[in-house]
Predict the structure of LacI family DNA-binding transcriptional regulator.
Amino acid sequence: MATIKDIAALTKVSPATVSRVLNNDQTITVLEETRDRILHAARKLGYKTILERRVEQHNESNKATPSVGILLCQTVEEETSDPYFLSIRQGVEEELLNQGITSTSMFRLNDTGSNQFTRDLDGLIIVGRISEKSLKTVSDNIENVVYINHSPDDSLYDSVVIDFVKSTETGFGHLLDQGYKRIGYIGGVEREHLNNQKMIIEDERLTTFERVMEKEGLFNPNYTFIGEYTMTQGYEMMKKALQQNDLPEAFFIASDPMAIGALRALQEANLTVPKDVAIVSFDDIEMAKFASTPLTTIKVHTKEMAQTGVKLLIDRIKGRKIPLKVLVPTELVVRQSSGSAD
């Protein structure tokens, strides 16, 4: 049987770090790339943690645990660029293990083309947005489905979501309360990937921005900048805004990575945040509080969303018939970047 030393030799990481990662030590600080590399090597070598071995021993004397699939609606590049979905996926994997479920499979929507992959699954957790029509092309034979971050039909499927409209209104409300009037928007495009096709999905953050600003009589279409949900695109969109003669005095930016890129563009232009331009962003990833100007942002409790999704699926597998939709609240975390217009 493979040992921790074998994994350390393969990954070129110390045995102590390998042990702490495999045993889910929450106190260790390690790059996500390193963590994934260690977990991949452990699976490749067939290594099993103490918890996994205990689960196997337990299953030998009890009925088999359910087989669960995780369907990711993001490409690898999208997940790498935006830690939001990555944190949900990791939370799902962690909670499945905590629940004693080690029979899991992970798929990406852009890599699937038929429903064959779900035929032996007892349940499926979907991270991200996928239409019901697309779901049927990959999973028309499975009954126990839980969506995280999307709810295509709450009369059929369990789901765990946040209220994007209310969350966005909270962010804009904070900027308006601070006295800002000329408010811009920087956001990205969310797509559904299936069979090498891409379908753009409506972003409620953008539509809420337009509705709120029109209601206040403050909407200016020249203040809206749409790219991709990446740090680089946040930088590029802010550079684009800076090329205009009329720069907004504040921005709502739809993700923290984009906001961090925007901060860099403002710094290069010798503008300070929040004195020259204020920012409120979205997600509250770990980097948000360590940005060059700590970000005021809408905090999304991704770990709790993941844990809730797993528990809903287990409950459904055990026999619950009525679908449940759980709304996880968000909160405004105020830091230095939002400042005041006074």
The mean pLDDT is 87. The chain is about 40% helix and 20% strand. The two ends are 66 Å apart (CA to CA). The longest helix spans residues 83-98.
